[in-house]
Design brief:
about 550 residues; about 25% strand; 9-stranded mixed beta sheet; disordered C terminus
């Protein structure tokens, strides 16, 4: 069943019930900000403090946008990109796209103008929908991407190179368009990292999206009475596919902008949230605030909260031990997945297996797992190999990348690039990653991009970026910098230079040393990890 049919059913059953709430505790008033201001602050759009919509309004908005697209010639198989911060418009726009038979193409709100252009071209995007935070970036490339494309702007003060989403949808029909969809129809393109650090376009069909709904609801047992607190960005499969469990059961969700401990606790308390999905840094920040006495549990209504689950990066067992000390009656869970496996849940710990914290779990609902050697043969129990997955949520292909598709999809199995091992009880533990991607606070950092940027500094001879273990973020990016002979370069110089990078891509640590390369000219990153990661681990252990 195509996922759009769930929205129609929810509208029939629960039409007047609230389905989405948007909360922005950081800025109660609307105002426009400059790109420079945006770079200096925590990314968040500026909208009214609290807004909400019903299932009827959700469906009507989706239909209006679908009919607008159809009136402009958008047809089945076309692509419509979404470049928005989390807001009430995001999901109706997403489902409006799907209702036309076109493909939704969510874009990372941290993308630079160059990355936006790259992804729009790679995905053959026909329409771009964007918000006020992205005017500067889109304007930089408008001359390059406007040709043969439609641009719709969501917000006040529409720029001259785009059309107003609100004005254009106002006169469109709120009735569902008569477009026939099947499970095998293409539905969405999500982006992941390529070997060069540039994103790959991951193609999924409606069966994949539906499977993610079933997986999430099966794992976490959402009912109509649950209220899900969604904090991560909706462009990411993790946030949206966890929300899909609420979507399947017609239950309410709260979109929170901001990750400060008080914002999260206020939202849980005031909105009576029963389920929250956190990244490791957010959970740790909450615990640290409680330890310091900055927050007190008695100030919040938390009896209704039944589940906290974490994903996107390995979870330290010590963190969950601390969490259970403060929240002994709350269930805990973790999930593992990839954008190529339609997000979380391909491997699942389960709330009943908290004694196995540290493992990512066992095969999730409807999924199969294997751990294989370089020849694709199963490793012996306890042996280390590559984790591979099989199930209805595996991607169709890497769009426009046949070579990468053949490398990752073999006989229906998705090769994850993650090294893992299975214990005597069948629980899977991640050991290492084949790729050099650094996961910092749940975000993927691509060393090649940071290295290329740093090499533009006039004093730098060579540079290598690796991940170092970090108690709060999981990993941080560290730049090993080799300075040109006779040149001078300080950490302060590099911190100033890297302010041109998005904040999340800036190295947290600079190490001035020689960058080793092998005979073929490749950086010997295993050697660097051996030198610096081992040292960092000892430092962390000494700090307790």
């Amino acid at each position: 069943m195509p996922i759009t049919e769930i929205l129609e059913e929810n509208c029939k059953k629960y039409g007047e019930d609230i389905c989405l709430v948007e909360i922005n505790p950081q800025q109660p008033e609307d105002r426009r900000i400059t790109w420079k201001e945006y770079e200096l602050m925590e990314p968040t759009p500026f909208v009214h403090y609290r807004r909400e919509i019903t299932w009827n309004v959700f469906n009507e908005k989706a239909n209006r946008f679908a009919n607008l697209l159809l009136s402009r010639g958008v047809k089945k198989g076309d692509k419509v990109a979404i470049l928005l911060m989390n807001c009430l418009e995001w999901l109706p726009i997403y489902f409006g796209i799907l209702k036309t038979g076109a493909l939704a193409v969510p874009l990372n709100f941290r993308y630079s103008a160059e990355e936006i252009e790259y992804c729009v071209n790679l995905s053959d995007t026909d329409v771009l929908v964007f918000g006020p935070e992205f005017i500067g970036r889109v304007e930089e490339i408008a001359d390059l991407i406007v040709k043969n494309r439609l641009l719709f702007f969501v917000g006040d003060g529409c720029p001259s190179f785009a059309e107003s989403y609100a004005q254009q949808t106002a006169n469109c029909s709120g009735s569902s368009p008569d477009i026939k969809l099947t499970d095998q129809d293409d539905a969405a393109i999500y982006f992941s990292s390529g070997t060069t650090g540039f994103p790959k376009a991951i193609l999924h069909n409606h069966e994949s999206l539906m499977h993610s709904c079933k997986v999430e609801q099966n794992h976490h047992g959402q009912t109509r009475d649950d209220i899900f607190l969604c904090i991560p960005p909706l462009y990411h499969t993790g946030a949206k596919m966890h929300w899909f469990g609420s979507f399947l059961t017609g239950s309410k969700a709260v979109l929170l902008k901001g990750t400060k401990p008080k914002y999260i606790m206020d939202a849980i308390s005031q909105e009576k949230c029963t389920i929250v999905w956190l990244l490791v840094p957010w959970a740790q920040d909450i615990l640290d605030a409680l330890d310091r006495g900055d927050m007190k549990l008695e100030d919040y209504e938390l009896d209704q909260l039944r589940l906290m689950h974490i994903g996107a990066q390995p979870v330290p067992p010590s963190l969950i031990k601390r969490w259970k000390e403060y929240f002994p009656h709350h269930q805990y869970d973790t999930n593992y997945g990839l954008s190529e496996s339609i997000g979380p849940g391909a491997v699942h710990l389960g709330v009943e297996n908290i004694h196995k914290v540290g493992a990512i779990g066992k095969a999730g609902y409807g999924w199969e797992t294997r751990i294989v050697d370089e020849n694709g043969c199963d490793v012996e129990p306890g042996g280390v190999g590559e984790l591979i997955l099989k199930g209805p949520g595996v991607m169709t292909c890497y769009y426009h990348d046949e070579k990468a598709t053949k490398e990752s999809l073999k006989d229906g199995w998705l090769y994850t690039g993650d090294m893992a091992q299975e214990d005597e009880d069948g629980f899977i533990f991640l050991v290492d990653r084949k790729k050099d991607v650094i996961i910092s606070g749940g975000e993927n950092l691509y060393p090649v991009q940071i290295e290329d940027f740093l090499r533009a500094h006039k004093a730098i001879k060579d540079v290598a970026v690796i991940g170092l273990p970090d108690k709060r973020l999981g990993e941080i990016a560290a730049a090993i910098v080799e300075v040109k002979e006779g040149a001078e370069c300080t950490q302060e110089d590099l911190e100033l230079f890297c302010k041109k990078l998005p904040r999340y891509k800036r190295p947290h640590k600079y190490i001035f040393a020689e960058v080793p390369r092998n005979a073929t000219g490749k950086i010997e990153k295993p050697k660097l990890r051996e030198i610096y990661c081992g040292r960092r681990l000892v430092e962390m252990q000494n700090k307790g």
